[in-house]
Amino acid sequence: MLSNINKKISCICALLLSTTSFADSNTSLYSTVFSILSYAKWNTPTPEICVIDNSALAQQFLKHSPQTTEFKIASIKSPAIKTADCQVLVFSNLSPKAEQHLLDTAATFPSLSISTNNNECELGSAFCLYPRGASYAFKVNLDSLSQSKVHIDPRVLLLGKNMEDTP
Predict the structure, then answer these.
(1) Where do the domains of the chain lie, and which CATH numbers do they carry?
(2) Phi, psi (5° rounding) for residue 54?
(3) Tens digit of each residue's pLDDT (9 = 90 or more) over 56-82
């Protein structure tokens, strides 16, 4: 019965928000990612962030991770997604179509996907970060978020506005 209530709450949130939402953040790319991840409920005490096909970005995540982080951070090649134990997949140089293909064919769930190279966020990753002024903002792809099977506190969705409200 509790599962049905959770499903109904999720459906209501999905109906209240458009398929894609965005939110402003007055922080860096790395702080924004760690902030988003703080709204997730993990099934492991040490979730692993896997940065796909970009070892330099993985090094930057290590450098900018909070001192109290519970996350492991690794750089992996996209073919290794099938065998890696990643709870977070960070894409930075793949097209949205390539992201979606990997999520459909290689990712094991629950795993949350984040992209730094998917401005429309209609396909691919659940969270799509983009520069906005001197900080970063993000969009949410609710279809991909649902596919991730990671429980995200709905308050992260409340940070966003309906895209139709943007100029």
Answers:
(1) 2-165 (3.40.640)
(2) -155, 85
(3) 999 999 999 988 889 999 999 999 999
